[in-house]
Design brief:
cell membrane, transmembrane helix, mainly alpha, Na+/H+ antiporter like fold, about 75% helix, single chain, about 350 residues, transmembrane, membrane
């Protein structure tokens, strides 16, 4: 008689299915907030014939309101984080299908020079402000690069290069998240206050808003022209991250107090300095420029990008705890705020002085 096998091999779990299962609750919550936000926008349109508050802004506010009274458990967090990051990156990538490289050429060398100059001047000025407020060198560099280039992405890229501590990273990123949301909500108010045209507002948003996806959220209410120009300007800012990180890598021994080992030269991987969704954006823009993306497809692609943006804004709101403002240091708060105000003033000055947009 055969001996009974005591060891039963457990059934294999499909990793893709397991991943989708873990993400589903958070994503569905973000979609629910999105549907409510879109419904409220439609109600505005029915009552006033025009939405005074766009669905994506409602999604941010509603998400923040929920987050204030409810702390998401790990069951929800992964899906919320996925919606806030990956889905928004997909939305940005899809936006490339509506932009032709002819727009970059048409922008001219003056705008490109203004973008590069703004990044360099703002890094130096923000670093100086932070140091004057008594912040350490590493924290000052994190604030300067995050404020001048692309917010959390720049902070995350620069931190390991300069050897920043986890406390420095957490403090700078937490306040940047709050300020980024406030910028998305408040920047459109400058359109009527300053009499900005679509092109001018697009340049302002591209020069001042922290993250590429947030530029999309801040410019959608101003129209497609502002969105296209704002995204273009912001992409040039993001591409400045590569040279900045390389430069700080060369200066890294000064921050650690040690000299680099000549037998182990530092290697730079340019592909790691450019996020995948920016590469996708550029590829789609190239396809659009070459006529590989037909005109009839641009509308649906743009609409899908818009819906994904609202979902991501809901996730962004759900991930922001407004009480974090009270926990970050007063000097960090002052440094980030003053740096942002300076960036706004420099950008507005360039727009009017050089007559950009």
């Amino acid at each position: 008689m055969l001996q009974e096998n005591r060891f039963v091999t457990p059934p294999k779990t499909n990793p893709v299915l397991a991943r989708l299962t873990s993400l589903a609750p958070g994503i569905l919550l973000c979609i629910a907030v999105t549907l409510v936000s879109i419904g409220l926008q439609h109600a505005e349109e029915s009552a006033f014939e025009h939405p005074y508050i766009e669905a994506l802004v409602i999604a941010i506010l509603l998400g923040m309101a929920i987050r204030t009274f409810w702390q998401p458990s790990p069951v929800w967090r992964s899906g919320i984080a996925f919606s806030a990051k990956q889905l928004l990156e997909v939305a940005v990538m899809l936006l490339g299908a509506s932009i032709s490289f002819a727009a970059i050429v048409a922008s001219g060398p003056l705008l490109l020079a203004a973008i590069v100059g703004t990044v360099i001047v703002t890094i130096v000025a923000s670093f100086t402000i932070s140091r004057m407020l008594g912040l350490a060198v590493r924290m000052s560099l994190l604030i300067a690069c995050g404020n001048s280039i692309c917010g959390n992405s720049a902070i995350a890229a620069v931190a390991p290069v300069i050897g920043a501590s986890s406390d420095d990273i957490a403090s700078s990123i937490s306040f940047t998240a709050i300020l980024g949301v406030l910028m998305v909500l408040g920047l459109p108010l400058l359109i009527p206050l300053l009499g900005l045209g679509a092109g001018q507002y697009g340049i302002l948003a591209g020069l001042t808003v922290y993250a590429v996806p947030q530029v999309l959220a801040a410019t959608v209410p101003a129209g497609l022209v502002a969105t296209q120009i704002g995204t273009l300007v912001k992409l040039v800012r993001v591409l400045m991250l590569g040279p900045v990180v390389v430069g700080l890598s060369l200066l890294a021994p000064r921050f650690s107090g040690t000299q680099a080992d000549p037998a182990k030269p530092r290697k730079f991987d340019p592909f790691k300095l450019v996020p995948w969704f920016i590469l996708g954006f550029l590829i789609l823009a190239a396809c659009r420029s070459l006529g590989l993306v037909p005109d009839i497809a641009v509308g649906p692609i743009t609409k899908v990008a818009g819906y994904l943006t609202v979902v991501s804004m809901a996730a962004l709101g759900l991930g922001v705890d407004v009480r974090v403002i009270g926990r970050v240091g007063g000097r960090v708060t002052a440094a980030v705020t003053l740096s942002l105000v300076l960036l706004l003033l420099i950008s507005l000055g360039l727009i009017h002085l050089l007559r950009l947009g």
